[in-house]
Amino acid sequence: MPRPEEALVAMGPVAGRRPEGLFVGLCTLDVIQLVDHVPGPDEKLTARDQVAAAGGPATGAAVAFGRLGGLPRLLTGLGSHPLALGVRADLEALGVRVMDLAAERMDPPAVSSVLVTESTGERAVASTNATGHRLRAPAGLEELVVSCDIAEFDGHHMDLAVEVAHAARSAGRRTVLDAGSWKDGTERLLPSTDVAVCSADFRPPGTATPAETLEFLQDHGVTWAAVTAGGAPILWAGPDGGGLVGVPGTRVVDTLGAGDVLHGALAYHLSRHDRIDGPAFAEALARAAAVASRACASFGTRAWLTAD
Protein backbone atom coordinates (compact mmCIF):
# COMPACT_ATOMS: atom_id res chain seq x y z
CA MET A 1 0.00 0.00 0.00
CA PRO A 2 1.42 3.45 -0.88
CA ARG A 3 2.38 5.75 1.95
CA PRO A 4 0.10 8.85 2.32
CA GLU A 5 2.66 11.18 0.78
CA GLU A 6 3.06 8.81 -2.18
CA ALA A 7 -0.68 8.78 -2.77
CA LEU A 8 -0.69 12.56 -2.91
CA VAL A 9 2.02 12.58 -5.57
CA ALA A 10 -0.08 10.35 -7.85
CA MET A 11 -0.60 11.79 -11.28
CA GLY A 12 -3.49 14.20 -11.62
CA PRO A 13 -5.80 14.55 -14.64
CA VAL A 14 -4.28 14.76 -18.08
CA ALA A 15 -4.22 18.35 -19.32
CA GLY A 16 -7.45 19.17 -21.10
CA ARG A 17 -9.37 16.25 -19.56
CA ARG A 18 -12.14 16.79 -17.04
CA PRO A 19 -11.23 15.27 -13.66
CA GLU A 20 -13.35 12.37 -12.46
CA GLY A 21 -14.49 12.15 -8.86
CA LEU A 22 -16.02 9.31 -6.86
CA PHE A 23 -18.29 10.43 -4.01
CA VAL A 24 -19.35 7.86 -1.41
CA GLY A 25 -22.06 8.48 1.14
CA LEU A 26 -25.52 9.75 1.91
CA CYS A 27 -28.23 10.70 -0.56
CA THR A 28 -31.49 12.16 0.71
CA LEU A 29 -34.51 14.04 -0.48
CA ASP A 30 -34.20 17.54 0.96
CA VAL A 31 -37.41 19.51 1.51
CA ILE A 32 -36.28 23.05 2.34
CA GLN A 33 -38.61 25.80 3.58
CA LEU A 34 -37.70 29.47 4.00
CA VAL A 35 -39.41 30.79 7.14
CA ASP A 36 -39.53 33.92 9.30
CA HIS A 37 -38.75 31.82 12.36
CA VAL A 38 -38.69 28.20 13.45
CA PRO A 39 -42.22 27.42 14.67
CA GLY A 40 -42.88 26.55 18.28
CA PRO A 41 -45.10 23.74 19.61
CA ASP A 42 -48.46 23.53 17.79
CA GLU A 43 -47.57 26.59 15.69
CA LYS A 44 -48.30 26.65 11.96
CA LEU A 45 -46.79 29.16 9.56
CA THR A 46 -46.60 29.76 5.83
CA ALA A 47 -43.16 29.41 4.26
CA ARG A 48 -41.89 32.20 2.03
CA ASP A 49 -40.24 29.82 -0.44
CA GLN A 50 -39.37 26.15 -0.84
CA VAL A 51 -36.95 23.85 -2.63
CA ALA A 52 -37.10 20.07 -3.08
CA ALA A 53 -33.81 18.55 -4.25
CA ALA A 54 -31.35 15.72 -3.75
CA GLY A 55 -29.23 16.27 -0.66
CA GLY A 56 -26.70 14.70 1.67
CA PRO A 57 -23.04 15.63 2.19
CA ALA A 58 -21.51 13.40 -0.50
CA THR A 59 -24.36 14.27 -2.87
CA GLY A 60 -23.91 18.02 -2.44
CA ALA A 61 -20.17 17.63 -2.93
CA ALA A 62 -20.74 15.66 -6.15
CA VAL A 63 -23.02 18.42 -7.47
CA ALA A 64 -20.41 21.10 -6.71
CA PHE A 65 -17.64 19.01 -8.32
CA GLY A 66 -19.73 18.76 -11.48
CA ARG A 67 -20.62 22.45 -11.46
CA LEU A 68 -16.92 23.34 -11.53
CA GLY A 69 -16.25 21.12 -14.53
CA GLY A 70 -15.59 17.68 -13.08
CA LEU A 71 -17.28 14.37 -13.84
CA PRO A 72 -18.83 13.14 -10.58
CA ARG A 73 -20.05 9.64 -9.77
CA LEU A 74 -22.09 9.07 -6.59
CA LEU A 75 -21.92 5.72 -4.81
CA THR A 76 -24.89 5.51 -2.45
CA GLY A 77 -28.09 3.68 -1.52
CA LEU A 78 -31.22 5.22 -2.97
CA GLY A 79 -33.82 2.58 -3.94
CA SER A 80 -36.74 2.44 -6.37
CA HIS A 81 -39.47 4.26 -4.44
CA PRO A 82 -41.10 7.04 -6.54
CA LEU A 83 -39.45 9.67 -4.34
CA ALA A 84 -36.07 8.07 -4.99
CA LEU A 85 -36.69 8.18 -8.73
CA GLY A 86 -37.21 11.94 -8.43
CA VAL A 87 -33.95 12.30 -6.53
CA ARG A 88 -32.11 10.34 -9.21
CA ALA A 89 -33.64 12.48 -11.98
CA ASP A 90 -32.55 15.65 -10.18
CA LEU A 91 -28.96 14.41 -9.98
CA GLU A 92 -28.79 13.10 -13.52
CA ALA A 93 -29.98 16.50 -14.80
CA LEU A 94 -26.95 17.99 -13.01
CA GLY A 95 -24.54 15.50 -14.56
CA VAL A 96 -24.08 13.32 -11.48
CA ARG A 97 -23.90 9.62 -12.37
CA VAL A 98 -25.61 7.61 -9.63
CA MET A 99 -24.49 4.08 -8.75
CA ASP A 100 -27.33 2.83 -6.54
CA LEU A 101 -26.30 -0.02 -4.24
CA ALA A 102 -29.85 -0.43 -2.89
CA ALA A 103 -31.77 -0.36 -6.16
CA GLU A 104 -34.03 -3.22 -5.05
CA ARG A 105 -35.23 -1.36 -1.95
CA MET A 106 -38.83 -0.10 -2.25
CA ASP A 107 -39.15 1.97 0.93
CA PRO A 108 -38.80 5.77 0.67
CA PRO A 109 -35.35 7.35 0.72
CA ALA A 110 -34.20 9.32 3.73
CA VAL A 111 -35.93 12.69 3.81
CA SER A 112 -34.32 15.77 5.36
CA SER A 113 -36.80 18.37 6.57
CA VAL A 114 -35.05 21.73 6.62
CA LEU A 115 -36.21 25.09 7.95
CA VAL A 116 -34.09 28.10 6.98
CA THR A 117 -34.62 31.31 8.94
CA GLU A 118 -34.74 34.19 6.46
CA SER A 119 -33.14 36.86 8.66
CA THR A 120 -30.04 34.86 9.59
CA GLY A 121 -29.64 32.04 7.05
CA GLU A 122 -29.44 29.55 9.91
CA ARG A 123 -31.04 26.16 9.42
CA ALA A 124 -32.76 23.50 11.48
CA VAL A 125 -32.60 19.97 10.07
CA ALA A 126 -34.28 16.66 10.90
CA SER A 127 -33.38 13.49 8.98
CA THR A 128 -33.04 9.74 9.42
CA ASN A 129 -29.77 9.82 7.41
CA ALA A 130 -28.47 6.31 6.63
CA THR A 131 -29.89 4.69 9.77
CA GLY A 132 -30.58 0.98 9.35
CA HIS A 133 -29.05 0.57 5.89
CA ARG A 134 -25.81 -1.30 5.19
CA LEU A 135 -24.42 -1.23 1.69
CA ARG A 136 -22.04 -3.69 0.06
CA ALA A 137 -19.27 -2.55 -2.26
CA PRO A 138 -20.09 -3.09 -5.94
CA ALA A 139 -18.51 -5.73 -8.13
CA GLY A 140 -15.52 -4.33 -9.98
CA LEU A 141 -14.60 -1.95 -7.17
CA GLU A 142 -10.93 -1.86 -8.16
CA GLU A 143 -11.78 -0.80 -11.73
CA LEU A 144 -14.18 1.82 -10.37
CA VAL A 145 -11.60 3.55 -8.17
CA VAL A 146 -8.89 3.35 -10.83
CA SER A 147 -11.21 5.22 -13.22
CA CYS A 148 -11.40 8.24 -10.88
CA ASP A 149 -8.84 10.89 -10.00
CA ILE A 150 -10.07 11.50 -6.45
CA ALA A 151 -12.48 9.88 -3.99
CA GLU A 152 -14.47 11.71 -1.32
CA PHE A 153 -16.36 10.26 1.66
CA ASP A 154 -18.85 11.79 4.08
CA GLY A 155 -18.64 9.08 6.77
CA HIS A 156 -22.14 7.71 6.18
CA HIS A 157 -22.43 4.07 5.07
CA MET A 158 -19.19 3.59 7.01
CA ASP A 159 -18.43 -0.02 6.05
CA LEU A 160 -18.70 0.89 2.37
CA ALA A 161 -16.60 4.02 2.85
CA VAL A 162 -13.79 2.09 4.57
CA GLU A 163 -13.67 -0.52 1.80
CA VAL A 164 -13.71 2.02 -1.02
CA ALA A 165 -11.13 4.24 0.70
CA HIS A 166 -8.80 1.28 1.16
CA ALA A 167 -9.18 0.37 -2.52
CA ALA A 168 -8.59 3.98 -3.59
CA ARG A 169 -5.45 4.28 -1.45
CA SER A 170 -4.16 0.98 -2.85
CA ALA A 171 -4.73 2.31 -6.37
CA GLY A 172 -2.85 5.54 -5.59
CA ARG A 173 -5.94 7.73 -5.81
CA ARG A 174 -6.34 10.70 -3.49
CA THR A 175 -8.90 10.34 -0.74
CA VAL A 176 -10.79 13.16 0.97
CA LEU A 177 -12.92 12.92 4.11
CA ASP A 178 -15.77 15.31 4.85
CA ALA A 179 -15.66 15.07 8.64
CA GLY A 180 -18.86 16.69 9.83
CA SER A 181 -19.01 14.77 13.10
CA TRP A 182 -17.25 11.85 14.72
CA LYS A 183 -19.12 8.66 13.76
CA ASP A 184 -18.78 5.05 14.82
CA GLY A 185 -16.03 3.60 12.65
CA THR A 186 -14.33 6.88 11.76
CA GLU A 187 -11.11 5.53 13.26
CA ARG A 188 -11.17 2.76 10.59
CA LEU A 189 -11.44 5.31 7.79
CA LEU A 190 -8.58 7.60 8.82
CA PRO A 191 -5.66 5.31 7.84
CA SER A 192 -6.87 5.45 4.21
CA THR A 193 -7.51 9.20 4.24
CA ASP A 194 -5.11 11.64 2.58
CA VAL A 195 -7.08 14.84 3.23
CA ALA A 196 -9.63 15.51 5.99
CA VAL A 197 -11.57 18.74 6.29
CA CYS A 198 -13.60 18.93 9.48
CA SER A 199 -16.36 21.08 10.86
CA ALA A 200 -15.99 22.61 14.30
CA ASP A 201 -18.40 19.89 15.52
CA PHE A 202 -15.94 17.11 14.60
CA ARG A 203 -14.37 16.11 17.91
CA PRO A 204 -12.23 12.95 17.93
CA PRO A 205 -11.95 11.21 21.31
CA GLY A 206 -9.81 13.15 23.75
CA THR A 207 -9.80 16.41 21.76
CA ALA A 208 -11.30 19.76 22.71
CA THR A 209 -9.81 22.31 20.30
CA PRO A 210 -9.25 22.58 16.54
CA ALA A 211 -5.48 22.33 17.08
CA GLU A 212 -5.95 19.07 18.97
CA THR A 213 -8.20 17.77 16.19
CA LEU A 214 -5.52 18.46 13.58
CA GLU A 215 -2.88 16.76 15.72
CA PHE A 216 -5.14 13.73 16.23
CA LEU A 217 -5.74 13.37 12.50
CA GLN A 218 -2.06 13.58 11.64
CA ASP A 219 -1.25 11.04 14.37
CA HIS A 220 -3.76 8.67 12.72
CA GLY A 221 -2.27 8.84 9.25
CA VAL A 222 -4.00 11.85 7.64
CA THR A 223 -1.46 13.92 5.69
CA TRP A 224 -3.44 17.13 5.17
CA ALA A 225 -6.14 18.34 7.54
CA ALA A 226 -8.23 21.44 8.13
CA VAL A 227 -10.96 22.67 10.46
CA THR A 228 -13.65 25.08 9.27
CA ALA A 229 -15.64 27.47 11.45
CA GLY A 230 -18.32 29.11 9.34
CA GLY A 231 -17.18 32.53 8.20
CA ALA A 232 -14.02 32.43 10.34
CA PRO A 233 -10.64 31.53 8.79
CA ILE A 234 -9.92 27.86 8.09
CA LEU A 235 -7.15 26.36 10.21
CA TRP A 236 -5.03 23.81 8.33
CA ALA A 237 -1.98 21.64 8.88
CA GLY A 238 0.30 19.52 6.71
CA PRO A 239 3.61 17.64 6.92
CA ASP A 240 5.68 20.83 7.05
CA GLY A 241 3.47 23.23 8.97
CA GLY A 242 0.13 24.92 8.54
CA GLY A 243 -1.70 28.20 8.65
CA LEU A 244 -4.98 30.03 8.18
CA VAL A 245 -7.05 30.53 5.03
CA GLY A 246 -9.53 33.40 4.98
CA VAL A 247 -13.17 32.92 4.04
CA PRO A 248 -14.63 35.62 1.76
CA GLY A 249 -17.33 37.73 3.35
CA THR A 250 -20.82 37.50 1.90
CA ARG A 251 -24.40 38.41 2.75
CA VAL A 252 -25.58 35.09 4.13
CA VAL A 253 -29.01 34.01 2.92
CA ASP A 254 -28.78 30.28 3.59
CA THR A 255 -25.95 28.20 5.09
CA LEU A 256 -27.52 24.84 4.19
CA GLY A 257 -25.08 22.68 2.25
CA ALA A 258 -22.21 25.17 2.39
CA GLY A 259 -19.88 22.54 3.82
CA ASP A 260 -20.88 20.07 1.11
CA VAL A 261 -20.10 22.64 -1.56
CA LEU A 262 -16.74 23.37 0.05
CA HIS A 263 -15.79 19.70 0.00
CA GLY A 264 -16.85 19.21 -3.61
CA ALA A 265 -14.96 22.30 -4.69
CA LEU A 266 -11.91 21.23 -2.69
CA ALA A 267 -11.95 17.79 -4.33
CA TYR A 268 -12.12 19.47 -7.73
CA HIS A 269 -9.20 21.82 -7.10
CA LEU A 270 -7.07 19.11 -5.47
CA SER A 271 -7.68 16.89 -8.49
CA ARG A 272 -6.06 19.54 -10.70
CA HIS A 273 -2.70 19.20 -8.91
CA ASP A 274 -0.12 16.54 -9.72
CA ARG A 275 1.57 17.20 -6.37
CA ILE A 276 0.23 18.66 -3.15
CA ASP A 277 2.40 20.86 -0.96
CA GLY A 278 1.52 23.54 1.59
CA PRO A 279 0.90 26.40 -0.87
CA ALA A 280 -1.14 24.15 -3.18
CA PHE A 281 -3.30 22.90 -0.30
CA ALA A 282 -3.89 26.43 1.02
CA GLU A 283 -4.77 27.62 -2.48
CA ALA A 284 -7.25 24.76 -2.98
CA LEU A 285 -8.86 25.58 0.39
CA ALA A 286 -9.12 29.26 -0.55
CA ARG A 287 -10.75 28.47 -3.89
CA ALA A 288 -13.17 26.05 -2.25
CA ALA A 289 -14.07 28.59 0.45
CA ALA A 290 -14.87 31.16 -2.23
CA VAL A 291 -17.30 28.76 -3.92
CA ALA A 292 -18.95 27.85 -0.60
CA SER A 293 -19.36 31.52 0.29
CA ARG A 294 -21.05 32.14 -3.04
CA ALA A 295 -23.46 29.29 -2.32
CA CYS A 296 -24.47 30.95 0.98
CA ALA A 297 -25.69 34.05 -0.86
CA SER A 298 -28.86 32.37 -2.19
CA PHE A 299 -31.69 30.30 -0.76
CA GLY A 300 -31.63 26.53 -1.13
CA THR A 301 -28.99 24.25 -2.59
CA ARG A 302 -29.58 24.89 -6.30
CA ALA A 303 -29.82 28.65 -6.94
CA TRP A 304 -26.05 29.17 -6.67
CA LEU A 305 -25.47 26.78 -9.59
CA THR A 306 -26.89 29.32 -12.04
CA ALA A 307 -25.82 32.52 -10.26
CA ASP A 308 -23.35 34.79 -12.08
TrEMBL record:
The keyword Disulfide bond does not apply. GO terms for molecular function: kinase activity. It comes from the Bacteria. Pfam families: PfkB. Residues 23-303 form the Carbohydrate kinase PfkB domain. InterPro entries: Carboh/pur_kinase_PfkB_CS (IPR002173), Ketohexokinase-related (IPR052562), PfkB_dom (IPR011611), Ribokinase-like (IPR029056). Keywords: Kinase, Transferase. This is PfkB family carbohydrate kinase. It comes from Streptomyces hyaluromycini.
